[in-house]
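Researcher: Going back to the complex we discussed earlier. I've cleaned up the inputs and rechecked each line, so this should be the final set. Can you rerun the prediction on the complete assembly and write out the structure?
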Amino acid sequence: MNRTSQTLALAASSLLLLLCGCGQKDDAAQTRADNGSATAGAANAAGGAGGLSGAAQAQAFYAEHPEFFHFKTVADIPADLRWEDGAGLPEVGSPNAKKGGTLNTWMQDFPRTLRTVGPDSNGSFRRWILDDVTLGYAHRHPNVTELREDGFYYLPALADRWALDRENRTVYIHLNPAARWNDGQPITTDDALFSFFFYRSPHIRAPWYNNFYGTKYAGITRFDAHTFALHFHELRPDIYSLALGLSPTPTHFYAEFGEDFTERYQWRVAPTTGPYTIARDSDIAKGRSITLTRVKDWWARDQKHFRYRFNADRIRISVIRDSAKAFEAFRKGDLDTYGLGLAEDWYDKLPDTAPEVAKGYIQKIKFYNDTPRPTYGLWMNQATPLLANRDIRLGVQHATNWQLVIDKFSRGDWSRMQTTADGYGDFTHPTLRARGYDIAAALAHFAAAGFTRRGPDGILVNDQGQRLSIQLTTGYEHFKDMLTILQEEAIKAGLDLRIEILDGTAAWKKAQEKKHEILFAAFNVGAEMFPRYWETYHSVNAYDAPFTADGQPNPARKPKPQTNNLLSIARPEIDAMIEAYDRSDDLGEMRRLAHRLEEALYDDASFSPGFVTPFIRSGAWRWLRIPEDGNVKIANSFEGSHLFWIEPELKKETLDARKSGKTFPPAIRVFEQYRKP
Amino acid sequence: MALNPLTLRKLRRFRSIRSGYWSFLALMALIALTLGGELLVNNRPLVIRYEGQWFFPTYGANLPGTTFGYDYGYETDYRALRARFAAEREHGSGSGATRREARAARADNWLLMPPVPFNPNENAAYEGVFKPAPPSWLGGPPGHWLGTDTTGRDIFARLFYGFRTTILFALAFTALTYLIGIAVGCLMGYYGGVFDLIVQRAIEIWSNIPFLYIVIILFSVIPATFSIPMRIAMLLLIMVLFSWTSMTYYMRTATYREKARDYVAAAVVLGASPARVIFYHILPNTISTLVTFMPFTIASAITAVTALDFLGFGLPPPSPSIGELLKQGTQSLTTAPWIVGSAFGALVSILVLVTFIGEAVREAFDPKKFTTYQ
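Model: Rerun complete. Updated structure for the full complex:
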């Protein structure tokens, strides 16, 4: 699941890469795609009335693929399975939470579809109807993030128990009989099977899903209406994530499934397993806003882990195209919360002395999370003449002043990224430290590469008169100023970085064609169990024919386009470790391999780790309450975990106070329990 | 060179329109100043006297810190050097005679910085971080007359060099569009017939291509392997390519009109070649209409390049530009109003100067000389 999600990132633009959290959580959520409002009754999978209904098509598909879809009885379930139900895990959320109220928030663009799969569906709105709110079979516990033998700790969602049969690489799942779609239909095993028809269908026009559902799973077995099993080709430590992270697809809703799926279901609201839906047509104001309503009698509302979450009755998401305007709307009180991630927003636009903050109307919240970090840094392409030389790469490492960027640009808020995979707990190398800015060291390395004297402009030149000038490409316009700081500092070390700011898609395309020299970019990563190396560092993703028969670098090799090996790194020893890592089913061994891989990559010096943002910062009006511990450990946004609640009396009190000038104690809250030293 | 008495009269008339004339002088003075800008706005000193040697670093190669006894090999931080010289003058070191000698030698060390001692690209931290600093007269750090931008670069220096790039760009743009526009327009008017018909249709099609989008698309795919001046030249070329058409309409009609006059027929009868007819007879008689357009073309070129910069498709970073400052300014309107204030003020002043000149030129070249200029 993890790997395929990165393939998704690869296929899509760098925008997607960064803006949409697409990683494991996302996949799991994405795989839960569904659609439209409960219309057109008819056929369920078992009934299969009418040749054209979705259910009937699914039945035909099952019959065509007997190697994948198996039908057995409860008696075939092994008796010695060790069922788990996630009992005993600490509950998520605050018991003080109250239901009610409306959350006002914003988005930059109106979604182009309400589908959650197919063209245009992977936009920033999707999290409101899919990623953050729908239920899978079981969810990774967002606070208990330690690893055990079978992977993460899971808390029950649609499933009430599950079991792993290691020998047969199979996960058994038992659905909670109480589970219902929001239209009242029960959620059954047939909906689970239907997913494997739906997501493998060409009609959804989503090749990533087709591939994911077609290759990651070896089969599915139905035992009864509430019990099924998923089979796998191999036993990886994240097998539970692949199985439990899925979610069912409402068979009854896709009765009209067919070739015109993407148009037919474009604006239909699908039944959901989660607490929020778009209840009325009037809640969709095209181009202006969308309002979500909490599902009445949601089946899981009293379940442990869900009873204190999803508290707002309504969530109104308005379209505001300009972030500066959204900020003003927040300050006025039209929006309840606003992300203050930028240093400028946190310190200058809404300083602690701002009247709304000083008078206690707006809370400023800084929450340190602990989750894998996007890989912001310089990706040096070894397939280019200068950077093929390791001394030049080492020189560039020492000539980039990330510390100055962190101290002066982010005002000390960011921290230095140290490896290629920070934030993975034990999997992150414990002692490796990224190279610091050191002019003398940079000059020594450049000199070793033949660049010994400075030209009239202070840039090093070699004996052939070639200047040490390297192009630095990026698609992140908002980091332009930061790059000019690196550029000015690099000149001191005799290195000329020519900055190229491209449109996000253009920059990503250039990098995918391996035409960049240095790329400043980041791969976004979900809250996954362990980092991936194959996509980014294996030689098959670097060149068409990386090595000659005797294992030497092939002089005629050509960079391979459309892969994530942006470094064009091809080293047999790294390949061997990656292959062992990807085959391994032993977490301990994988951890050791990951550390050795990091050391090899450090030695290779083609990735200059940049910075990590170890926190979420937001502003929230006083009536928006949050639990004692702030948020969940793997949170990636203030509202995404839906732990907040709204106090209508406080809202009235605060608005009155604003008129009368009454003040409250200022609330600047910092949650540091997950902060890494 | 003897000028045509008619032209002289027009020039006298232009001089008599005070606002236009003074604007013209001011703009010329500004351009002249910016051409020697490195002597006025720069972080390199004009003159350094160090241990008996003279240095003039403004236009030369960069002088590493080691030249002045520092231990680094990159370009000297001259503002620090100035502070060091000043400190050395105050407290000499050593003792007795040597101390006096040392002091005497050191007292000879001095340097002269330009009036604005900042480079448009250098980041200066304010209160320890890179953030906008208010102008010095509003309590900001000394020396930054208009404050600094979001990464601590001096706004005056950026406006100064931004103006230079913009105005040179606009002048080159005007010259090129006129060159192409006049040539094509004259040919169409002179030859007429099928040639005119075909070229006219081609121009109609060409001018219907939405200019801004094409510039954005083309400019985003230009490989950045080119140097910054090269990229600016390409931007210029693209803009010219889509802007020369409007000039052809005026030239074409003017040429048609002049061609029908007797003096052209006389010239043809006398055996003048088409080139001679066009350049010696027709062009001088049509040029006065064109001249009046020129300032407005310049104004629109300035606006266009500023708009492109504002949208992020203009001059490549870190080139200083007014549009880029305007964009920064609108993003930090509440926290750093001086950014947008300076950029807006500068843009308006330039456009006002150019427009005054344009109005005056139009008035001076107006054949109906008794109309009043309002």
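Model: Worth noting: The first helix of chain B runs from residue 5 to 16.
Researcher: Good, that matches what I expected from the previous run.
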